[in-house]
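From the methods appendix. Each design record in this collection lists the tokenized structure first, followed by the designed amino acid sequence. Records were kept in a plain field format so they could be parsed without special tools. The example shown here is representative of the layout used throughout.

RECORD:
FOLD TOKENS (476 positions):
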């Protein structure tokens, strides 16, 4: 079935609305290069629209009622928003769920070392990446260091115009014959993704007559690693952190620089982290389009999807279930049975990106069941790989309802699979939420160069995703 390009239906007013909306998203993505930053930026926006922290409401013993707007943050990495509906929560919720973690490099716990008077940081890559894409490009450091006394130091290096950047070096082609003969997966080894951060040695301090054993050990270490000592001195001066503080740090290596308009017509956006902050942004801003609803509307932004949704901040955590229980309790509606009913009676868009057809690589797609740029919000009945393994598989009754809602609200939408059968595949948070017996379908924005340091989306698809999510919340 041929789907019309969304740009062709826009008049000048709607084209301007699309561009304006995507400018807000561009700024959000540029400021949100980690899951912590993504949640913090979202909280700023939703608080400005009247959402209150659920923790404060619970602590004050307040009650909730229809029309109230509350949110909850878990470990600074996940966010849940609730717009309380007129109906009892046991009748189910309308949920938009996305993840805000993205493929990247994480610093190891003991990362800093000197070799040949270069100072480097050891990393461990996070999520599915093509390792060769991360070399010879400007990189930034984002994250948090927590000192033993509990002091939290936020780190952002490489984003301001006058900031230095860091990088991972590559071998020159003149000496790279053996390297070029390797498979793409082996051209750059994981243990070689080490980040260059310094090359200027300093002379160590002279011994003091009354120096302590600790001062002596530090001076001797600095004499053996003069360049590393200089970097440590800079970190101490700028951030008041020591080398041992890396043990309780969470620092991510990401591409440096803002998301940019792409194309002479400015129809696209190129930036780091579209997967899946594009669905996160369109989901929580869709929530901001509502002031009331029949059934409670929810947006959940989670962490750890790129590594299986595990841990306390992933979608397999009991965090979301616990927060639903807290909301129901503040409404005077909680019981274990009613909580189970609320979850089972819910309907959800598991919002995650789809692989857009690339004219340079058409062979990996089956064209009748693929996502195309500017053809709108994409629905995947199932994801998984090779025989739908690891997939949620949406029911046709739910899909029929979605078709009606999208068409009645003039949302441009399409359906897709993730590539040809046996070509590959992937998973989302859908299958974990479906374990509650709720109706769940995957939906999201098509992306080119997915999981590369710089990914590409169509502004029309971003705009149509927000419209589709809004229509679902209002009409499901």
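DESIGN:
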């Amino acid at each position: 079935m041929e789907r019309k390009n969304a740009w062709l239906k826009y008049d000048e007013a709607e084209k301007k609305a699309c561009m304006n909306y995507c400018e807000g998203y561009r700024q959000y993505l540029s400021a949100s290069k980690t899951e912590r930053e993504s949640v913090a930026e979202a909280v700023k926006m939703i608080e400005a629209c009247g959402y209150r922290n659920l923790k404060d409401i619970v602590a004050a013993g307040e009650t909730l009622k229809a029309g109230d707007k509350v949110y909850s943050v878990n470990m600074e990495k996940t966010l849940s928003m609730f717009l309380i509906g007129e109906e009892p929560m046991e009748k189910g919720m309308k949920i938009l769920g996305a993840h805000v973690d993205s493929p990247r490099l994480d610093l190891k716990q003991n990362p800093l070392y000197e070799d040949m008077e270069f100072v480097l940081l050891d990393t461990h890559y996070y999520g599915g990446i093509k390792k060769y894409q991360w070399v010879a490009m400007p990189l930034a450091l984002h994250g948090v260091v927590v000192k033993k006394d509990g002091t939290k130091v936020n780190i952002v290096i490489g984003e301001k115009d006058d900031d230095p950047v860091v990088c991972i070096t590559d071998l020159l082609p003149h000496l790279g014959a053996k390297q070029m003969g390797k498979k793409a997966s082996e051209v750059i080894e994981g243990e070689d993704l080490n980040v260059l951060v310094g090359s200027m040695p300093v002379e160590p301090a002279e011994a003091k007559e009354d120096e302590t054993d600790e001062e002596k050990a530090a001076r001797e270490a600095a004499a053996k690693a003069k360049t590393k000592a200089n970097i440590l001195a800079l970190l101490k001066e700028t951030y008041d952190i020591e080398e041992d503080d890396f043990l309780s740090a969470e620092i991510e290596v990401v591409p440096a620089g803002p998301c940019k308009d792409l194309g002479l017509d400015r129809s696209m956006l190129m930036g780091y982290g579209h997967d899946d902050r594009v669905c996160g942004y369109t989901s929580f801003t869709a929530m901001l389009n509502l002031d009331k609803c029949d059934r409670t509307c929810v947006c959940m932004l989670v962490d750890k999807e790129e590594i299986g949704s595990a841990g306390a901040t992933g979608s397999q955590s009991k965090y979301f279930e616990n927060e639903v229980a807290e909301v129901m309790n503040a409404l005077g509606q909680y019981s274990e049975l009613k909580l189970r009913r609320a979850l089972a009676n819910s309907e959800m868009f598991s919002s995650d990106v789809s692989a857009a057809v690339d004219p340079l690589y058409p062979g990996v797609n089956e064209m009748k069941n693929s996502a195309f740029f500017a053809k709108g919000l994409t629905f995947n009945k199932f994801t998984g790989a090779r025989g739908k393994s690891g997939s949620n598989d949406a029911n046709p009754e739910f899909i029929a309802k979605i078709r009606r809602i999208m068409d009645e609200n003039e949302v441009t939408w399409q359906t897709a699979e993730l590539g040809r059968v046996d070509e590959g595949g992937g998973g989302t948070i859908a299958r974990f939420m479906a374990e509650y017996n709720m109706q769940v379908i995957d939906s999201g924005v098509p992306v080119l160069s997915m999981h590369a340091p710089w990914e590409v989306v169509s502004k029309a698809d971003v705009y149509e995703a927000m419209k589709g999510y809004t229509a679902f919340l209002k009409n499901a």
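APPENDIX NOTE: Residues 6-102+272-475 form a domain with the Aminopeptidase fold (CATH 3.40.630.10).
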